Amino acid sequence: MRLFLLVLCSFFSVVSGATAGVKLKDLVEVEGVRGNDLVGYGLVVGLDGTGDGLRNIPYTEEALSSLLERLGVNVQGEQFRPKNVAAVLVTGTLPPFARAGMQIDVTISAIGDASNLQGGTLIMTPLNAADGLIYAVAQGPVLVSGFAAAGDAASVTEGVPTSGTIPNGARVERELAFDFTNLNSIRLALRAPDFTTAARIEKAINVGVGTPIAVMLDSAAVDIKLDARFQSPAHMMSAIENFEITPAQKAKIVVDQRSGTIVLGAEVRISSVAIAQGNLSIRIRETPGVSQPNPFSRNGDTVVVPRTDIQVDEGDRSVALIEENLTLADLVDGLNALGVSPREMIDILKSIKAAGALHAELVAQ
Q1: If 0-12 CB within 10 Å is exposed, 13-18 middle and 19+ buried, where does residue 114 land?
Q2: Which terminus, N or C, of the chain has the lesser number of Cβ atoms within 10 Å?
Q3: Which residue has the higher pLDDT, 365 or 318?
């Protein structure tokens, strides 16, 4: 436990020193420059008997019949029940500035009762965006990281065999209608909105360029006007995206009760507070006795006499005093003095927050 806290303390000391000099492109997103989600419905063929049961999943049979008819195979009225076909949804993201001919990764997920997609091949599947237009077409062998094996009396499953990927499995067929070159201004959106950080970004750009072209709109946006010295908005972004900014950090503590994980920000402060921590354990042991009548006695019954032994152990109770306006390292040292586990530390942090002595946002997951 002590080693865990010392490593945690040392880690945050490094992080707090590394916050100085973060590149602008690591703090903001350029408004309008983003990816677009794609989705499509397709078929995976070539499975080893692990495909959909066509009696239970009729839409797989309909899609397969439609595909074969487009390929010139007439299956009307025929009864075919292949077990090597699975209906899937294909998802991917069209990156910003994607050009026709580029290839993107796609994810394949079974939507029927197929048990394994390993060894399957995705047949040509169009991918649509939110506007209903086709922007890419996916096809190729499915890579599955999980596996499943079963016998008569036992089965084993590792990972998720009903989901896989196809690296570079989709080819872009249509480009987004977004002309970045003709923009007269660029709006930067902060990933972590903060007024101080936005003001520092505004100052760094204006000082670095030598002209007041940046204006802070609010805690989440900074507007930049195109300077005549730059040939295009792309050239201007290339010039300013490597400016170093010192972001302001909000005091925050994130705890995960299930795993016992605690993440404390370097700006966490705590007022003077005393903490007592101890464990109470109660042990109850039953040792019943037997009372029998004397030998050859005509009267008397055998009786079970209950005997209960109760022990109460309050453990080693301790009290730690944490003084006013301590840093993260002092807070960790104070809790370490109590010898608490990470899960107990979560309860202590919640109690300190409830007492009004913890000056940070406590996020419980």
Answers
A1: buried
A2: C
A3: 365
Q: Which CA distances in Å does 359 have to 197, 262, 264, 330?
A: 20, 16, 12, 14
- Of 228-232, 323-327, 338-342, the poorest mean pLDDT is in 323-327
Instruction: Tell me the pLDDT tens digit for each residue of 230-289.
Output: 888 999 999 999 999 999 888 888 888 777 788 877 777 777 766 666 654 545 566 777
DSSP state of 342: H
Q: Identify which of 271, 253, 272, 270 has the alpha carbon closest to the alpha carbon of residue 262.
A: 253
- Residue 14 confidence (pLDDT): 38
DSSP state of 3: H
| Residue among 114, 105, 100 at smallest CA distance from 43 | 114
Q: Where do the domains of the chain lie, and which CATH numbers do they carry?
A: 23-32+180-245 (3.30.1360), 36-172 (no CATH), 252-290+305-364 (no CATH)
Structure tokens at 213: 């072209």
pTM of this structure:
0.67
The conformation of residue 259, written as its DSSP 8-state character, comes to: T
Quick check: helix, strand or coil at residue 360?
Answer: coil
CA distance 226 to 237: 10
Query: Do the Cβ atoms of 50 and 115 come closer than 8 Å?
Result: yes
Q: How far apart are CA 259 and CA 274, in angstroms?
A: 27
Treating both helix axes as pointing N-terminal to C-terminal, what angle do 233-240 and 195-209 enclose, rounded to 10 degrees? 110
- Helix 2-18 with 328-336: angle, nearest 10 deg: 180
- Positive or negative torsion for Cα 151, 154, 158, 164: positive
